[in-house]
Amino acid sequence: MVDRERSAARIELDIETLAGPGYTLSDEAIRRYAYTPVYRATLDYFTAALRELGFEVSEDPVGTLVARNRPAGEPVFGVGSHCDSNRNGGKYDGTMGVVTALEVCRLNEELGYSLPLQLVSFLEEEGSGFGQMLLGSRIMLQRVTEEELRDSFRAVDDGRSFWEHAAEAGYEPERWRESAHVLDDLSGWIEMHIEQARVLQDTGNRIGVVTAIAGYVHADITAAGRADHAGATPMDFRRDPGVVAAECILELERLARAAGKGTVATVGEIAFEPGLINVVPARARFSLDIRGVDEDAFRGVARDIAAFASQAAERRGMTAVFEQRQTLAATPLDGRTVSALEAAAIETGEPFMLMPSGAAHDTMCVAERVPSAMVFVPCKDGISHSPLEAASPADAALAAEIILNAIRSLQ
Ligand code: HGY
Ligand code: MN
Ligand code: MN
C-alpha cells in the first residue's frame, strides 16, 4: 500500500531543493539548461538519489540521464521527463515529472515489487540552451542531422554550436547516434507532467490520462526593409519591416481562430535590427509556434501565414522569408498503456479524466518506438513557463501510485 503522505513529503523536498540556489541561474525564475553548472548540479542530485536505490546511472553521448535497475539487454519499463527549464521557468514543469519518476523507483523498492525500471531525464526539452525544443529526445530518435548538431544549432547565450558546447562539457557528440540505444530495452514508457493549462483544475480532476499530444511547427519569419532616419524619413518613403511584422501577428491570430479544432498560434519572440528608437528597422524577425491535434488545420496555418507574410512585404516593396526551425506530428498515445493508467486511476477512487496535451513533450519522440502514455496533474490556474507555476506534491504522489500500479499491470 502506497503511503501517499510520505511520497508527497519526499516529492516536495525534492522539488523545493531543486528550486533552491545552486540549481537555477536566476533568483526570479527557475532557469537551467544544458551544460550549465546548475543543470549539472540537478543531474548530480538525481544521480545520487538513484544510486542510493541501487540503480546504475549513466548519461547518453550528449547528456540525457539514464538510470536502470536491470543490466543492459534486459527489458525495463521507462519513466521520466526532463529537468531543464524554460528561461522563465517554474519549479514544476519537467522537474516534477522526473521527481515523480524517482518516487516510483523508491516505491518499487520499498514495496518489494522489484519491477524492472529505467528512469530517463531528457536533455534540452525546453530548448532554452539552443532554441531547439525536445532536442535530447529528437537526437535519440535521430530526428536531427549531424550538420544541425555540428553547425546550425547554436547557443542562445554565445552563438557557438551545440557540438562545441557538448564536447566542452565532456560529452562525445560524435557518438550522438548511439543515443538511440537508450530506448532499446524499453517495454513501455509513462511520463508524468503538470498539465500547463487549467482544464483539470476547472473540472475538479486530480489526474489527467493523456491520449494524444498536439503536433507543432516552430519557425521564424524575417521581414527585410531599409533602415532610415526615424525623424527625417517621410512615411511614403519608408520600407519598414516592423509594420509587416505587425500585420502578420494579427493575421496569425485570425488564421488560428479560423482553423479551429484546437489550433493555436503564438508569436513569442520578436526582434528588430538595429533595434534603436530613432531608426526605422532594417529587419524584423519574429518566431512562430503553431500547434494542434489536427494536422491539416495547424499545418494549414503555417502555410498560410508564410504566404501572407511574403505578400504583405511585397505590397510594401519589401521581402519576408519563412524559415522552419523544426516540426513534429500530432502523436496519438498507446491504447493499452492508456487503459492501464485508466484502470489504476479508477482503483484510487480519485477524480480523473482522459484528455489531449496541447504542450509538447519528449513522449512525442519516445512514442515512435515504445508504447507510451502520459499522466497530468493540475497546475494552479494553468500557469506555466512562469515562476508563478504551482502544483501539488499530493497530486504527484497520487500520480506516482497510479503509474506504479499501471506498470505492474503491464508486466
Ligand atoms: O513548449 C512546450 O510545449 C514545452 O513545454 N517545451
Ligand atoms: Mn515540460
Ligand atoms: Mn515547458
Shape: globular
Largest sheet: 9 strands, mixed
Q: What is the typical, i.e. mean, pLDDT?
A: 98
Helix percentage: 25-40%
Q: CATH first level of the largest domain: which class?
A: Alpha Beta
Number of strands: 16
Q: Multimeric state of these chains?
A: single chain
Order of helices and strands: HHEEEHEHHHEHEEEHEEEEHEEHEHEH
- C-alpha Rg, in Å? 22 Å
Task: Characterise the protein shown here.
It is a single chain. The chain has 411 residues and is an alpha+beta fold. It folds into two domains: 4-213 and 331-410, Zn peptidases (Aminopeptidase, 3-Layer(aba) Sandwich), CATH 3.40.630.10; 215-328, Alpha-Beta Plaits (2-Layer Sandwich). It contains twelve helices and 16 strands. It has helices at 4-18, 37-52, 95-110, 135-140, 146-152, 162-168, 199-203, 241-259, 295-315, 335-348, 363-366, 393-410; strands at residues 56-59, 65-68, 76-82, 117-122, 186-194, 207-213, 215-224, 228-229, 264-266, 270-273, 279-280, 283-292, 319-328, 331-332, 352-357, 372-377. Strands 1, 2, 3, 4, 5, 6, 14, 15 and 16 form a nine-stranded mixed β-sheet that branches. A hairpin with a 5-residue loop joins β1 and β2 (65-68). The longest helix has 21 residues, at 295-315. The radius of gyration is 22 Å and the shape is globular.
